[in-house]
Each structure stands twice: as C-alpha cells, then as structure tokens.
Amino acid sequence: MHADLALKMMSDLFWTGLLLSLPLLGLTMLVGVVISVIQVVTQVQEMSLTFVPKLVTAALVLILAGPWMLRKLTQYTVQLWTGIPGMF
Questions:
Q1: Please, are residues 56 and 27 in contact by the beta-carbon 8 Å criterion?
Q2: pTM
Q3: Per-residue model confidence as pLDDT tens digits over 61-80
Q4: Which domain of life is it from (predicted)?
C-alpha cells in the first residue's frame, strides 16, 4: 500500500464521518443554543429544560436521517471492500 492511497482512504473516512455526524450534531447544537438564549432571557436555569429538547431533537434526526446515514455508510463500506483487490 502506498502512502498516497493510505492518505486518500483516511481522507474518505474522515469526510464520511463528518458528513454522517453533521446533521445530528448540528441540529442538536442549534437547539442547545436556542434553549440557552431562552434561558438567559427568562433567567430559568433548569437542567431538564436543556436536556429534553436536545434528546428529542437527536431522536428525531436519527429517525428521519437514519436511512440516509445508513445508505452513505453502506456505500462507503462497499467502496472500501471493492477497492481491496486494487490495493495490492
């Protein structure tokens, strides 16, 4: 295996991981920031007020984007496995 092939495989791995985690992390962070702003404005510092909406958001994102995430991960895995004979 050559160094450029290993770097390309590592790059594909990181981009796939970023692409798969971006919807979940992005929307959860957005909900957290909105809830934090609401807490600052209303001065209500309840811990469950931040935890429950983020948990519900994460569950909804996984339900809605889960099939797409699984397809992307399957495509990456198939591409990786079919590329093995060409590596040596």
A1: no
A2: 0.79
A3: 999 999 999 999 999 999 99
A4: Bacteria
